[in-house]
């Protein structure tokens, strides 16, 4: 099964090289483009004050993170959750810069650049010349933003997981019934109460006597021009 991790971060600013730090990380696990329900979410003490402009974006104040663990205290759990899966992020270079910077500060091995998948690049290729921010993509794909008053790492990762599904072909791709895997998914969907593949025609529900009466009615009504004769039914 194809395991991927959708990741989002919140930070004190735009550039770790100028002293900005990560203050929140959220991850969603997906298997074969379906969320599994497993998540990773931590607030992080940035060891510096959070600028007002950043607070207006994500609503995370100094008080909210003053007792949070430092990145070095959560990095092992984060990397264990990610495992060897590809990491999906929107404008991935931004998140990667902060994850790499924080990993470098505490001596943690970096995630190789080839493991990052940028949904912004995917969106720009699919919708050239159009707005492709996360908000714009949610509106384009009719993904509700009603529960989000501020940007947040976990809620944005959840939204991005839905966007990523659409960018990869939407629900039609997930329930591709032309493949063996699609048939298995359809069977699982049916077992959960949905409509799956029908393995064989339904048995007739009419009785033999009812079918005999129906044929007699047709014979008496249509006589020599019975439309059923062409199918070998008299």
Explain the overall architecture:
The structure is a single chain. This protein is an alpha/beta fold and 234 residues long. It has one domain: 2-Layer Sandwich (Nucleotidyltransferase, domain 5). The chain is 43% helix and 15% strand. The protein has ten helices and five strands, in the order E-E-E-H-H-H-E-H-E-H-H-H-H-H-H. The chain has a five-stranded mixed sheet with strand order 3-2-1-4-5, with helices on both faces. Strand 2 and strand 3 form a beta hairpin. The longest helix is centred in the middle third of the chain and has 15 residues. About 6% of the residues have low confidence.
Topology of helices and strands:
Blueprint: E1 3-11, E2 22-31, E3 34-43, H1 52-58, H2 62-65, H3 71-82, E4 87-89, H4 92-106, E5 116-118, H5 119-126, H6 134-140, H7 153-167, H8 170-174, H9 180-191, H10 208-222
Parallel strand pairs: 1-4, 4-5
Antiparallel strand pairs: 1-2, 2-3
Helix pairs in contact: 5-7
Number of domains: 1
**Main sheet specs:** 5 strands, mixed
Q: Which superfamily, in CATH terms, is the homologous superfamily?
A: Ribonuclease H-like superfamily/Ribonuclease H
Name the shape in a single word.
Answer: elongated
The average pLDDT is 85
Ends apart, CA distance between termini: 54 Å
Q: Specify the CATH architecture.
A: 2-Layer Sandwich
Beta content? 5-15%
Look up the CATH topology: Nucleotidyltransferase, domain 5
Amount of helix: 40-55%
List the secondary-structure elements in sequence, H or E.
EEEHHHEHEHHHHHH
Q: Taking strands numbered 1, 2, ... along the chain, how are they ordered across the largest sheet? A: 3-2-1-4-5
Structural class: alpha/beta
How many strand segments?
A: 5
